[in-house]
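Quick board copy: two proteins, each given as sequence then tokens.
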Amino acid sequence: MKKKLESELVSIAHRILKLKGREDVLRMHEEARLLYEKLSVLKFAHENFDDDIPTIGNNSSFFDMLDTAFNNKISDNIEVEDKIYINLDDVVDDDISEPVMNKIKDMVEFMPEETKQQEEVDKIIESVVPKEETHKGELEDLTADFRDLPVFEPISKVQQQNGQEKKTLNDRIKSGGMSIGLNDKIAFIKHLFEGNATDYDRVISQLNTIQSFEDADRFIETIVKPDYNNWDGKEEFEERFKAIVEAKFS
């Protein structure tokens, strides 16, 4: 078991030394994780199974074992799926052992705890991945569910003293001082103002400042209608709109 761990650690160290540049950062991160896992297994084995696992020297640290391992002969290297497995049986000098040892020691010394490491990864992801932005849809998309609203049944709440009929719930929805039902409002915006709710609100606001129906009608004919093709073919909606405006002054 120990021989296998040592071989894997040496292989990881060699792979780390080959990584250079920004494009290898993710690969280096993965190799560092593997290195940390192998070191943890070897540390656990030494702390709990000293009698069953042979050691390299007495009371030697892992880095002492690696020193001995790296000073052994590196031969019969076999590369399978970009992983190198090394034979450590024969002993020869190798110039690469010194930088490999230093790199492993530095990585182990500064290796963060698992929780802290995950938090740093999450922060990086949050800074790179843009937040999803919400866009306001077109008026027809927003009002799609209101196209076929049923007519509400009359509610008996207050009987007008002048004998007027009871108002429906739609009639009680006020818009800028005029009594405009929700269905009417949606129809006016769609057919008379080409789906532009802002223009509709601006016209209603202006009509609420006019003191007579004659002035209001003149405003509609000379200012509003020319901007919307004189409401050609929209006579039914125009008549309904003017009737509501006229009711405001009655």
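And the next:
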Amino acid sequence: MARQQDIFTLVGNRMRAPLHRDVGTSAFERPPIADLIRRIDQALQIRRAA
């Protein structure tokens, strides 16, 4: 359950964080949106199955 909560925390933090387009960020700090959506979908499916 902790892993799923981490995904939701990541999404919440990304939505609250200001955009730093002028600052170089790595792919780890800003995951591609498709990957983020896939991880959220996976977490929701696991949560529903529980």
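Board note added afterward: The chain has one domain: 7-49.
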